[in-house]
Amino acid sequence: MTLVKIKGHHTPRQFSNFMHELINDFPAGYVHGETGTYKNSVPLNILENETAYLIELAAPGYAKEAFKISVDKQILTIAVEKEAEEQQAEKYIRREFVNRSFKRSFTLDEKINAAEIEAKYVNGILTLNLPKKAEVKPEKKEIVIN
Predict the structure, then answer these.
(1) Does 26 or 13 have the greater pLDDT score?
(2) What is the DSSP secondary structure assignment for residue 114, as one 8-state letter?
(3) Contact 108, 76 (CB under 8 A)
């Protein structure tokens, strides 16, 4: 057993806080919890421009047909259900990239036109275009006094 000394004198509580901060600062994709689920299993970006919001989801190695994208009651869900792979004859010494099932959900703002959402998958990036609803601006009208 190797003992690791942490700089300075720390109480068990301070060590616990240190470990908690260290574990929570790991990048997305590390196992957490008892279920072994992957927190934020796929990284994404959300951008906004004048006409739409864009969601870019990095998911290389998946077939376009594997993605299931739906909107139900203002909840946008992006999911991939990956079936268990058959055992292969090759023996992996180290295996770091494996396509797993995942599910990400987003609550849509009332400004988004859910009926016009579009998606494309190019070079391992799934991009969703969530157009904003056109603002209804009252027409300017001059009133003539009679």
Answers:
(1) 13
(2) G
(3) yes
Cβ atoms of residues 104 and 43 within 8 Å: no
C-beta atoms surrounding 2 within 10 Å: 3
Per-residue model confidence as pLDDT tens digits over 17-30: 444 444 444 443 34
The H-or-E segment that residue 102 falls in is strand 102-107
Residue 84's pLDDT is what? Answer: 63
Nearest residue to 128 (alpha-carbon basis) of 140, 116, 137, 138: 116
Task: Tell me the three state secondary structure of residue 120.
Answer: strand
Q: Is 125 helix (H, G, I), strand (E, B) or coil?
A: strand
Q: Give the type of residue at 99.
A: N
Residues 132/113, Cβ–Cβ less than 8 Å: yes
